[in-house]
UniProtKB/TrEMBL annotation:
InterPro entries: N_methyl_site (IPR012902), Pilin (IPR001082), Pilin-like (IPR045584)
Family, similarity comment: Belongs to the N-Me-Phe pilin family.
Record field: transmembrane: 7-31
Pfam families: N_methyl, Pilin
Protein name: Prepilin-type N-terminal cleavage/methylation domain-containing protein
Source species of the chain: Undibacterium flavidum
NCBIfam families on file: IV_pilin_GFxxxE
Key words, A-Z: Fimbrium, Membrane, Methylation, Transmembrane, Transmembrane helix
KW Transmembrane helix (keyword) present: yes
Length: 144
């Protein structure tokens, strides 16, 4: 009666372990970067209400002076109140000309990066957000 081989040899097991180690070495840094970008997405989302408020007040003309955006104040008119800080958002601010600056916290992989939106008023009272800047674009790694 012949006996058939059962199980794996030692070399086969070592090859599998080596492959798993290589995959883990590549995947973990990518996963870490992904989680930091996901946390920063909350900072970007915190600007949404203020962006909408600037667009509405420009379309209704309530914040226009001499054809330019001016006199904006958070919590007044069409502009909502500043969102509260949380685990990933340190602060959000808006200037009288509609520039919105959101700052990340300095924890959970974030390093206090800023996300700045500058509105441009086009004909017909429409607002475009063509100028988007901040340290999230210039830092290493870029997270926005």
């Amino acid at each position: 009666m012949t006996r058939t081989q059962q199980g794996f040899t030692l070399i086969e097991l070592m090859i599998v372990v080596a492959i798993i180690g290589i995959l883990a070495a590549v995947a973990l840094p990518a996963y870490k970067q992904y989680t930091v970008k996901t946390r920063f997405a909350e900072v970007i989302a915190a600007t949404g209400g203020l962006k909408s408020g600037v667009e509405v007040c420009a379309q209704t003309g309530s914040c226009l002076t001499a054809g330019a955006i001016a006199g904006i104040a958070a919590g007044a008119g069409d502009i909502p109140a500043i969102p509260a800080a949380n685990n990933h958002v340190a602060s959000v601010a808006i200037t009288a000309t509609g520039t919105i600056t959101a700052t990340a916290t300095s924890n959970n992989g974030l390093g206090g990066q800023t996300y700045i939106l500058i509105p441009t008023l086009t004909a017909g009272g429409q607002v475009t957000w063509d100028t988007v800047t901040g340290t999230c674009y210039t830092g290493t790694p870029k997270i926005c």
